[in-house]
């Protein structure tokens, strides 16, 4: 038999011979399921063919065919044989520790039939069949030996292939196990990712639902607010109608009271006219009596009059010269802009008219006391300021109270509050603006009181002249000094009061209330500082007035006029301060240092303390940082 090669097809092992399929016209068709009888018959047929073939070499030619017997059909008796096996060929575990290799007598048995198995691994079977070599020729023995060798080689190759297959199967099993593990991990990772995606999707759904509900709630709130606003607007409209009706009724009552007061004034004027007529008649009678007496004495004094005529003429010429000098000196002692003097005269004239009409009314001290108490209760709080303003306006609108007289009393009380300590100038400025917005003519009366109390609110200044003033006391009274117990107040007290007036005036011009117009605002403050620097000299009084004004109004003026205001400050630094230093007055040192520190520290960039009320009535403003690029020195004049 020849060797076989193993071919694996779709997992099935197929054995094929290594030799060609056909040799000399003889086909080789191995059948793995052959039986021994079939094998013997096949060998006999092969031997017959070889004997009859001429192509077989002579040494291998047979004289007669030999037929193999299966042992059953032969008449020979089967001889028993003895099989000897050494102990080292038995299992190694049974022979450890033994050094004796003596043979063991084997059991004697008969081979009635020969059983061949393709799967047997025991080579002793073929060794024990050596007796067949005695019955066959050398060729058959060689063929059998060659067949046996090929059979062993095929078995070894099959073992190797099976081992390789087992290794491949084992590695494949491990790979499949690893693949299954990876698939399981991937499945778990995928499940985890799906859970995360589900959680994220649910979170997004929840957020979207929350946003939707929030939007719905906001929409409902907006609708409710619109409804509330509509209700409030309707209520406000009804309230406005009611107030308008009340105002009309109030206006009618005021007109009636005004007519009654005018009637009383006319009656009083008639009484005054009658008294004036009686007084004039008495004066006329007295004049006639004096005239008659004078006529009697005229003859007596005619001679003396003629003698004194020359002397009186000389005295008249001298008096005219003195009056001319006094008028000229009066024009030299007054420092003020013509426009400011005209405004001052108009305002004071209006205040005089109100004061002249006051005696025609009954006692109004109760109203004045009430207004004075309200002014003293003013503090730096929005609620307090608005409440006091409403109460004062309510007093002005009282039909039993003359408005112009009460406005004049209000102006006088507000200005007189500067004499009290710890005056909140900014809160008073708010009250003044709120009151004058409802009663516009009250601003002129208030400014007239300012001009009476402090001439530097005009602004104007008076210098001393012996021709213009009878004495120094009259001069100081013209400046605004007070006489207390027949003595003039000290200059220190006067300057303190002067600074208070200017602080209140500066707080007034810079006050800004939302929704309310200040009729004497920053525009008037700019005009005041321009007139001040253009007309007034530099001395102790003007220095204190300027310092107090800048302290309260400088921040607002810089916020509005910026570079122009910086030019004004440059003029103050280069001109006004230099003139003050040239005065060489020791009393000016403190004021000069205060103005210098204000300019050098740029205090106009910082909001003054108390300017913003507690509820922030003033609008929020931003303060520019750094110096204005248009800032430069200038000695020009401002109008």
TrEMBL record:
**Where is this chain primarily localised?**
nucleus
Region (Disordered): which ranges?
287-328
| GO terms of molecular function | inositol hexakisphosphate binding; phospholipid binding; translation initiation factor binding
Q: What is the top-level taxon of the source organism?
A: Eukaryota
Q: Which is a Pfam family this sequence falls into?
A: GLE1
**What keywords are assigned to this protein?**
Coiled coil, mRNA transport, Nuclear pore complex, Nucleus, Protein transport, Translocation, Transport
GO biological process annotation, one example:
protein transport
List the subcellular locations.
Nucleus, Nuclear pore complex
What are the GO cellular component annotations? cytoplasm; nuclear pore cytoplasmic filaments
Chain segments annotated as coiled-coil in the UniProt record:
148-203
Regions of compositional bias (Basic and acidic residues) in chain numbering: 287-298
Q: Does the keyword Transport apply?
A: yes
Q: Which InterPro entries match?
A: GLE1, GLE1-like_sf
Which family does the similarity line name?
Answer: Belongs to the GLE1 family.
Q: What is the name of the protein in this document?
A: mRNA export factor GLE1
Q: Which organism is it from?
A: Quercus rubra (Northern red oak)
Recall the taxonomic lineage recorded for the source organism. Answer: Eukaryota, Viridiplantae, Streptophyta, Embryophyta, Tracheophyta
């Amino acid at each position: 038999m020849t060797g076989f090669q193993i071919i694996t097809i779709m997992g099935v092992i197929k054995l094929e011979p290594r030799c060609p399929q056909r040799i000399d016209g003889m086909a080789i068709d191995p059948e793995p399921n052959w039986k021994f009888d079939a094998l013997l018959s096949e060998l006999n047929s092969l031997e017959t063919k070889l004997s009859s073939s001429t192509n077989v070499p002579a040494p291998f030619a047979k004289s007669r065919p030999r037929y193999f017997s299966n042992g059953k059909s032969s008449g020979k008796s089967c001889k028993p044989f003895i099989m000897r096996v050494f102990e080292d060929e038995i299992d190694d575990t049974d022979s450890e520790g033994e050094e004796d290799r003596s043979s063991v007598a084997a059991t004697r048995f008969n081979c009635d039939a020969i059983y061949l198995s393709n799967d047997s691994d025991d080579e002793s079977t073929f060794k024990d069949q050596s007796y067949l070599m005695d019955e066959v020729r050398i060729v058959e023995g060689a063929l059998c030996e060659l067949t046996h060798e090929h059979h062993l080689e095929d078995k070894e190759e099959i073992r190797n292939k099976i081992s390789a297959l087992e290794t491949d199967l084992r590695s494949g099993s491990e790979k499949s196990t690893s693949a299954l593990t990876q698939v399981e991990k991937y499945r778990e990772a995928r499940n985890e990712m799906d859970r995360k995606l589900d959680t994220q999707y649910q979170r997004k759904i929840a957020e979207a639902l929350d946003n939707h509900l929030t939007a719905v709630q906001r929409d409902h709130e907006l609708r409710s607010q619109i409804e509330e606003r509509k209700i409030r607007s309707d209520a406000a409209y009804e309230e406005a109608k009611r107030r308008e009706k009340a105002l009309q009724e109030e206006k009618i009552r005021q007109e009636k009271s005004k007519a009654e007061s005018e009637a009383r004034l006319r009656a009083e004027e008639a009484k005054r006219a009658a008294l004036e007529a009686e007084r004039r008649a008495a004066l006329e009678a007295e004049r006639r009596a004096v005239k008659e007496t004078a006529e009697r004495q005229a003859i007596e004094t005619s001679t003396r009059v003629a003698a004194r005529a020359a002397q009186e003429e000389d005295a008249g010429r001298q008096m005219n010269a003195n009056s001319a000098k006094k008028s000229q000196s009066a024009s030299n002692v007054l420092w003020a802009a013509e426009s400011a003097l005209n405004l001052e005269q108009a305002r004071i004239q209006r205040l005089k008219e109100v004061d002249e009409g006051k005696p025609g009314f009954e006692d109004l001290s109760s109203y004045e006391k009430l207004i004075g108490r309200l002014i003293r209760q003013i503090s730096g709080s929005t609620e307090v300021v608005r409440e006091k303003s409403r109460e004062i306006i309510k007093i002005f609108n009282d039909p039993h109270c003359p408005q112009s007289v009460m406005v004049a009393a209000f102006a006088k009380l507000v200005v007189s509050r500067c004499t009290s300590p710890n005056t909140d100038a900014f809160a008073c400025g708010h009250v003044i603006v709120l009151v004058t917005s409802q009663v516009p003519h009250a601003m002129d009366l208030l400014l007239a009181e300012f001009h009476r109390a402090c001439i530097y609110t005009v602004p104007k200044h008076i210098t001393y002249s012996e021709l213009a003033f009878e004495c120094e006391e009259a001069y100081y009274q013209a400046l605004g000094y007070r006489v207390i117990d027949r003595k003039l107040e000290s200059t220190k007290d006067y300057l303190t009061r002067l600074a208070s007036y200017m602080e209140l005036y500066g707080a007034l011009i810079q006050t800004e209330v939302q929704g309310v117009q200040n009729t004497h605002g920053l525009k008037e403050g700019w005009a005041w500082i321009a007139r001040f620097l253009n007309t007034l000299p530099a001395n102790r009084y003007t220095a204190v007035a300027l310092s107090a004004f800048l302290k309260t109004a400088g921040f607002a003026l810089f916020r509005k006029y910026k570079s122009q205001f910086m030019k004004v400050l440059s003029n103050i630094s280069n001109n006004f301060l230099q003139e003050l230093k040239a005065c060489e007055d020791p009393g000016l040192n403190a004021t000069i240092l205060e103005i210098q520190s204000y300019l050098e520290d740029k205090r106009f960039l910082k909001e003054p303390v108390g300017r913003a009320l507690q509820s922030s009535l003033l609008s929020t403003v931003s303060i520019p940082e750094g110096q204005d690029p248009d800032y430069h020195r200038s000695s020009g004049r401002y109008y």
